[in-house]
Amino acid sequence: MITGQELVQRIEKFSPLSLKMHDDPTGLQVGGLLQPVHRVLTTLDVRPEVVQEAIELKADFILAHHPLMFHPAKNLDISVPQNQMYADLLTHQITVYAAHTNLDRAPVGMNDWLAQSLDLQNIQPFNFDEQQIALGRFGSLPKSLTIQALAQKLKQVWQLSGVRVIAHDLADSVRTVGIIGGDGSKFYPEALKVPLDLLITGDVYYHTGHDLLANHLPVIDPGHHVESIFKYEMKKLLDQWNEECPFFQLTVMASQCNTDPFTFL
């Protein structure tokens, strides 16, 4: 049996906090790390429905990708759903820990998982910062596809009902593809240096879309929620640690809640 602190040490060995971006509120979000951990729920987001799921499953630790607290609470009025969620977590003694941009930039982290899920070959890093730490990944498709066909592949692999595409011609053929999960469109100048045939990233801003067209870099925007791959990959990783370290003795569950706020009609 392990404590929250021992579990966090193992998580941070895999994705060190030194990799996180400036001002990213990664790490412990709610609760404490001294008590034993028995049941872990992995999730992309920590939303009220996820907390209720954790309570029903008797989870005592939530491991999330997106931080619970991007902005400080202005009060603790529990008529506010977010504040009630904090109260529920504390009442049920559920610890919440987020591995965010440190996991995005880890040597085998979020963007590697996304690239692997598309069967990209010869996966390599790009978008290095001044510390020579890379965020994005790129690789080659097993065979060239049209932008239209690749968009359909993404919908199938990531179970999406729709994607946004920025391209002059959907019939153009692409082979070298880059991926930055979440909101990565601001990094497109680095993608131009690779060069890529196409970039996959979410939350592309309208005016950035025009810049991408002007620079002849096609983009498929599958939304931010594709990062939900985190909850399944982290479950596999924790299960692996269970086998390697029998004293872990963790029950690991992937959240079944869909926290995507968008519905495509």
Automatic annotation (TrEMBL):
The keyword Metal-binding applies. InterPro entries: DUF34/NIF3, DUF34/NIF3_sf. It holds the Pfam family DUF34_NIF3. The keyword Acyltransferase does not apply. Keywords: Metal-binding. SUPFAM superfamilies: NIF3 (NGG1p interacting factor 3)-like. PANTHER family: GTP CYCLOHYDROLASE 1 TYPE 2 HOMOLOG (PTHR13799:SF14), NGG1 INTERACTING FACTOR 3 (PTHR13799). Homohexamer. Belongs to the GTP cyclohydrolase I type 2/NIF3 family. NCBIfam families: YbgI_SA1388. This is GTP cyclohydrolase 1 type 2 homolog. It comes from Bombilactobacillus folatiphilus.
